[in-house]
Amino acid sequence: MGEAHSGRGWRLPAPGLVLAALAAGIAIRALLLALPPLFVTDVAYYNVQAVGYILRGVDPYGASYSVPAALQTPGAANVFAYLPGVFVFLVPGGADARVGLVACDVVAAVSLLLFRPGRGGQLGALFLLFPPAVLFSTSFLNDSLPSIAFVAVALLLESRGRRLFAAGALGLALASSQEAWFILPVYLAYSFRNRSYAPPLVTLAVGGATLAPFAAWGPAAFVSNTLLFQFQRPVAPLFSAGPFGLSVNPSLQGMLLGVGAALPLAARGAVAAAFLAYLLWRSKGAMSYLAWGSAASVAVSLFVLAGNFYWSYLELPFVLLLFWVALRPEGAADPSTLKDAAR
Question: Range of 50's domain?
Answer without folding.
Answer: 13-236
